[in-house]
Amino acid sequence: MEEIAFTMQLKPGNVAEYERRHNEIWPELTEALQVAGIRDYSIYLDSASGTLFAVQKRTPNHTADQLPTLPIMQRWWAYMADLMETNPDNSPVVKPLERLFHQA
C-alpha cells in the first residue's frame, strides 16, 4: 500500500468542534474514501501550533485524486471550512510531507 502524509492548519479555538465533526463523519463520505482506495486514514494534532498531521494508506490502484470532483467531498469541505485554513474552493490547505525514515 502507498502511504502519504501531509499537514493542514486548524484555526485557533476549534479543536473540540473539529474532533466532534470527525467523530460524526458522514457515512457517505466514509464510503467515498473507501471506494477511492483509502484504507487507513489518521489525523493527529499538534496542540501547541494547531497543525494537523494526516497519514493515509492507499491501495495501489486508488482513485483518491478524483475525490475533489465528488459532491460529497465538496460538501464536507464547505462544512469544515470555518474550522481550518482553506483554499478558495473550501478544500483544506494541504502541505505534503516527504518521508525521510521508515521502519517496518
List segments where confidence is low: pLDDT < 50 over at least 5 consecutive residues.
none
> In which range does the helix fraction lie?
25-40%
User: Helix- and strand-based class?
Assistant: alpha+beta
Range of strand content: 25-35%
Q: What does the average pLDDT come to?
A: 97
- The Cα radius of gyration reads 14 Å
Major sheet description: 4 strands, antiparallel
Number of DSSP helices? Answer: 3
Number of strands: 4
Shape: globular
Sequence of strands across the biggest β-sheet: 2-3-1-4
SSE series = EHHEEHE
Distance between the termini: 13 Å
What are the main properties of this structure?
single chain; 104 residues; alpha+beta; 4-stranded antiparallel beta sheet; 4 strands
Structural summary, described in words:
This protein is of the alpha+beta class and 104 residues long. The protein has three helices and four strands; from the N terminus they run E-H-H-E-E-H-E. The chain has helices spanning 15-23, 27-35, 71-80, and strands at 2-9, 38-46, 51-58, 95-97. The protein has a four-stranded antiparallel sheet. Strand 2 and strand 3 form a beta hairpin. It is globular.
Give the SSE layout.
Layout: E1 2-9, H1 15-23, H2 27-35, E2 38-46, E3 51-58, H3 71-80, E4 95-97
Antiparallel strand pairs: 1-3, 1-4, 2-3
Quick summary:
With 104 residues, the protein is of the alpha+beta class.
